[in-house]
Amino acid sequence: MDVGVSAAVVRRFVDPMFALMYEIGHPVRKSPEPPPIRHISRAARPRRRATLRPMTDLSSTAGVVVRPAAAGRLRRLGAAALSLLVATAVWLPCLHLFFRSEPGEHRASGALSPRGQALLAHQLSLWEEDSAAQDAALARMRAANAEWDFMGRTFLVLGLANAALRDPGAQARHLAVIDRIVDETLAIERERGMLHFMMPYATRRPFVQQPARSLFVDGEIALMLGARALVARRADHEAELDARVAEMRSRMERSPVLSAESYPDECWTFCNTLALSAMRMADALHGERRGLDLGRRWLAAARARLLDPKTGLLVSSYTHDGRILDGPEGSSLWLVAHALLLIDPDFARDQYARARRELGAELLGFGWAREWPRSWAGPEDVDSGPIVPLVGASAGSSGLALLGAAAFGDAPYLGGLLTSLELAAFPIREGDRLRYAASNQVGDAALLYALSFGPLWERIAGAGGAP
Fold first, then answer.
1. How confident is the model at residue 381 (pLDDT cuts 50, 70, 90)?
2. End-to-end CA distance of the chain
3. What is each CA distance from 345 to 182, 337, 407, in whole angstroms?
4. Is Transport a UniProt keyword of this protein (predicted)?
């Protein structure tokens, strides 16, 4: 059922209900009529003492004397409260219908959904037309977290690559924007160093492996280069990809848990699995399985040392030698599971199913995701985003749950998440473009990647790189 209701239509039904409730609780009082003119005015006559009889009924409590006017008022208030309760019981189960997404928001192949096309149009405009808007968006993100500037580029390149593979007629346009993003990112890294894209605590102590490099930066640059090459090969980008892959493989091999650092003595499953995804892209380009072999060994080490014993979920961060720092976190797990589809699809599906059970939630047509399982709660931080009280919804986890639901074909959960997005993220539609007021560029780019997901991973499998 497709329900589209404007605010005016909603007010048409809601305003009379509240007006009626107001009238019940606040009856119109008529002004007393003036006393009739007589020889002796009523006011001058001696008054008889009125005797009020005690009154007990459903509007009074036992043993309490209630005057008739007060009893009537209580009855009216009770009726108003009952009306509100009934209205709430009727409206709440229907509320999601006003925000419910169209069927088929994620399509395995072919054109993007209308929402995906509108998100794509806005993201393209930031890089093709309005440099001032792009600079302002990046500045706002960097003020909160420099990583978001970098990750926004990665998600957008992945989304553009998927869109190019879905629509060959638009491939040249999408590749031009990909090249601009990648070339600019490489130039910034050369001029300002990897710390430009990292949070300040990266300088508080030395990296275990020297010279210092961040797998967060190397892995996502390699991922952008690999995605570009899988659409159309470019020699200089492939050379850079091969160099990054060799460096990442060397560093991961030197760790007891086959993991390289993103920050000093801090490894993240998020970054290591994305690095493995970039290696799988290189496998597909060169007809090799070196990335797959390392991925399988990494997964064996992770199963032995990086699984949370209570939930069976991968932890989010750990030291270079494998000491766990943070337990399972939704802002990592959903993306990690989707990346592991390129290493071990069965284990990836198991991780998604566990995350869905431990972190996913649905109620009355709305969907969201918690940041932590009930058995472990970490601190609210820049990754989790604000946590909604009572339901425990996390902006970071819910956003990446969209990618998980799309990657694993979980259409009902994807629909619930998108319904919540329409209610809580305040969509702004300008012509054929869409963005969300409660989000930012990285959030919108991640959503675009989720709705476009599929062609890149399929191309890896089609190149003989299927695990």
1. confident
2. 40
3. 29, 9, 11
4. no
Among 320, 330, 376, smallest CA distance to 351 is for 330
Question: pLDDT band at 19, cuts 50/70/90?
Answer: very low
- Are 142 and 200 a contacting pair, CB within 8 Å? no
CATH of 119-465, one of 3.30.70.260, 1.20.120.910, 1.50.10.20, 3.30.479.10: 1.50.10.20
Strand order in the sheet with 317-318: 267-268, 317-318, 324-326
Report how far residue 298's alpha carbon sits from residue 465's, in angstroms, rounded to the nearest whole number.
17
The pLDDT score that the predictor gives to residue 278 is 98
β-partners of residue 433 are: 430
pLDDT at 102: 61
Rounded Cα–Cα distance for residues 338 and 273 (Å): 9
pLDDT at 375: 84
Q: Is the pLDDT of residue 3 over 70?
A: no
Domain-wise residue ranges, the chain? 1-27+69-80, 119-465
pTM, 2 dp: 0.79
How many other C-beta atoms are found inside a 10 Å radius of the C-beta of residue 303? 13
Amino acid at 361: A
Query: Residue 219 is inside which H or E element, if any?
Result: helix 215-231
CA distance 286 to 30: 89
Whether residue 434 contacts residue 123, with contact meaning beta carbons closer than 8 Å, is answered with no
Cis peptide leading into residue 211 (ω within 30°)? yes
Q: Are 289 and 343 in contact (CB under 8 A)?
A: no
Main-chain dihedrals φ then ψ at residue 370, nearest 5 degrees: -85, 160
Q: Give tens-digit pLDDT for 117-150.
A: 999 999 999 999 867 777 787 787 788 788 999 9
Element (H, E) at 220: helix 215-231
Question: Pairing state of beta strands 427-430 and 433-436?
Answer: antiparallel
- Which structure tokens are listed for 275? 């690095």
CB 371 within 8 A of CB 387: yes
How far is the CA of 422 from the CAs of 102, 115, 367, 415, in angstroms? Answer: 12, 11, 11, 11
Task: State how far the Cα of 6 lies from the Cα of 467, in Å rounded to an integer.
Answer: 49
